Amino acid sequence: MLDHTHAPDAQSWVSCANAADTDFPIQNLPFGRFRRAGSHDAVRVGVAIGDQVLDLHALGQLDPQVAVLLGSMAQGELNGFMAQGRAARIALRHALFEGLSAQPSGTASLWRARAESLLVPQDEAEMALPCRIGDYTDFYTGIHHATTVGKLFRPDNPLLPNYKWVPIGYHGRSSSIGVSGQAFPRPWGQVKGEGDAPVFAPSRRLDYELELGFFVGPPNAPGMPLDMAQAEASLFGATLLNDWSARDVQAWEYQPLGPFLAKNFSTTISPWIVTMEALAPFRAPFVRDAADPQPLPYLDSATNRERGAIAIGLEVWIQTHQMRAQGQSAVRVSASSFADAYWTPAQLLAHHASNGCNLQPGDLMGSGTQSGPAANQGGSLLELSQGGKAPFALENGETRTFLQDGDCVILRGFCESAAARRIGFGDCAGTLLPAMARA
Amino acid sequence: MLDHTHAPDAQSWVSCANAADTDFPIQNLPFGRFRRAGSHDAVRVGVAIGDQVLDLHALGQLDPQVAVLLGSMAQGELNGFMAQGRAARIALRHALFEGLSAQPSGTASLWRARAESLLVPQDEAEMALPCRIGDYTDFYTGIHHATTVGKLFRPDNPLLPNYKWVPIGYHGRSSSIGVSGQAFPRPWGQVKGEGDAPVFAPSRRLDYELELGFFVGPPNAPGMPLDMAQAEASLFGATLLNDWSARDVQAWEYQPLGPFLAKNFSTTISPWIVTMEALAPFRAPFVRDAADPQPLPYLDSATNRERGAIAIGLEVWIQTHQMRAQGQSAVRVSASSFADAYWTPAQLLAHHASNGCNLQPGDLMGSGTQSGPAANQGGSLLELSQGGKAPFALENGETRTFLQDGDCVILRGFCESAAARRIGFGDCAGTLLPAMARA
């Protein structure tokens, strides 16, 4: 599965991509869509390299061999390429790796000579959603999150009997998914009042959720399931995902059909899709505790047991309004790992298609909140503040139970191992604005 | 609100549109998308008139004045027109009415002279989805359904405390929405087994749900709610909707996040969108029982109280495999009315946007199952068979608790009043195929 594009010592002629702390070394090469900030240019597909964006439209014009591999991406659209699957991704990855490599070659020389037309600094780029997202599904794979939150909603029954058998999921809202940098007003909603009647008011328990998002590549036809091998092959790549949640609205509305307005006002993802190839060195065994039920056969395979999981470190950072006003950087509030997820991405996709539901290129599957086993590893404020009962202190002395207006929440993710070059996801940042006045 | 296009005695030169039992008199004029059956033509937008389809692409080429009103519809796409809103719909409705009218006029003469190029028989047309559906939301406005089903899932707690305050809804799956004529295999899924472990098997409790679907026209910007007047103005029109449901899968998977694989394998809608203008003569008062909570202010308006509801008669018909084999027509199994819905379409949309969630042209809102108050008015088999405990007889002597392979379920809808011409929705038919074999 690993090849020379995963060599930890490989370097790029784009020298900033060789910095130890970059999220985007030549081993990563994630896809996003961008235009020059402030321009009215059409959106283009690009690849992150160091602190630059490689413009695939310009690249296609420069290099006819690569243009063939790009297909419809040259027109600024990623979904067509996503539909092609693994072989097309690998071919393009190899071509990009060669052209960006510090190792001398005709291709690398050609690209390097035209660097000025090919590269756009990321801080001069305005990012768009990386692809057209038809349907968005959110799962619930964080068992520590499900247990902690379950205790708050159902003290005597935290983990329901289906949890260890079914990869629990529900449909989310596509239209309100935005890219890192998204800002949105505090939502209004119905919440429980003092008496029987609810109150319609701005949410007072606004929260984030630390998640990963997995994008679907090749589709399955309606009625046709995906076995575990097909599901693994149909995964395109991953982003960070913040499933903003209004907990007071959720508590009042969610029975019997699940979360709705508590979550569909905004969902933020990071702009870069890290491909399954870039994640390959960080695959890990999927181990089900012997005391737990083993997955049913349609969710099981030898490959999944050997390397179905992915070790992705995850962090939540917050920069409050006060911190910004005082010139202070964001502070980290928690950290966890996707290695703790109860189901693997291939299991989520195989389950999703198991009834014949058709998945399409660009469809997005959220992982659910990723919390670690420790109390300070909660992937949401609901967990960190024990349901809002225990304010916790930020490093600058401010405290939080839930989010305050002006808070910017930044998710970060990265993969590290002794045998591979560190790769990262880039920031997934979103800012809560004050509620809008209502007539 | 009513004008000469609603006159009950208006007739068309398309004489089949004057038949007493047609769903599509000149007062209706619903939009759909079609191509000639068996052709590889691009899909075109059409309007149903009697048993014919008026081809708007051909019409635009014939009549430049109408071409201006059609805009992007001439290219076979309805969403752009949906975004324009009520004034554009009314202008086009008036132009279509004049051109199709039996009243002599230059326009009517011109169209009539070219009838052969403008009209395609519906039985020679293959229908597509009427528009691109970005997001699909399903509500739960059938209080009789919610009460009966609630008793089955929660005998001591059928109607939850939020039901009479919140228009309960959840997000559905867009990719698996198909148009009337859809056939799909019986889905597999996890269902409760004899012991603790579930079983992965074809669903044994496959059901339909009798619903209406409402399409969104003009969008709201992210973060910007719609008040009741704006919500009413943002409705485009309605179809019939069958929310097929695997009850055994649903019972096992639905807690705590709601229905997922139990419903996302297929959803069938009727091909024609009946516009809000065609429904105008059938608007009815929205009356909340004095013993019930009155709607919160954001869900209330004088207009909604006066005419927020719509009186639409609804029916379910079934044609079994045996009936088809013996040349028997479908038999009616139940009837109900959308006038019994607990919330109006404008309330659903105002609630959906109340947190700032952005709705887009072509988004679809299901009404939830529409059952009448009587036991034989259930809009699903779950209700008619008392949760599968009481088989009921079809007219030909067959019995059903849930659907059998080969059953074709046909939803029908129509509006009738003493003061207006009857209009209908056309059939919403779907067929259950046997489960596919699994390795």
Count of discrete alpha- or pi-helical segments spanning 4 or more residues of chain A: 14
Structural class of chain A: alpha+beta
Arithmetic mean pLDDT of chain A: 96
How would you name the oligomeric state of the polypeptide chains in this document? homodimer
CATH class descriptor of the largest domain in chain A? Alpha Beta
How can the largest sheet of chain A be summarized? 8 strands, mixed
Describe the structure.
The structure is a homodimer. The first copy, chain A, has about 450 residues and is α+β, with helices and mostly antiparallel strands. Chain A folds into two domains: about 5-130, SH3 type barrels (Roll); about 135-435, Fumarylacetoacetate hydrolase, domain 2 (Alpha-Beta Complex), CATH 3.90.850.10. Helix content of chain A is about 25%, strand content about 25%. Chain A contains 14 helices and 27 strands. In chain A, the strands form seven sheets. In chain A, strands 6, 7, 8, 13, 14, 16, 17 and 22 form an eight-stranded mixed β-sheet that branches. In chain A, strands 9, 20, 21, 25, 26 and 27 form a six-stranded mixed β-sheet that branches. Chain A has a five-stranded antiparallel β-sheet with strand order 4-3-2-1-5. In chain A, strand 23 (about 390-395) and strand 24 (about 400) form a beta hairpin. In chain A, helix 1 packs across helix 2 and helix 8 packs across helix 13 (about 345-355). The longest helix of chain A is centred in the first third of the chain and has 15 residues, at about 85-100. The first copy, chain A, is globular. Chain A starts with about 30 loop residues before the first strand and ends in a 6-residue tail after the last strand. At the A-B interface, strand 7, strand 10 and helix 9 of A face strand 7, strand 10 and helix 9 of B.
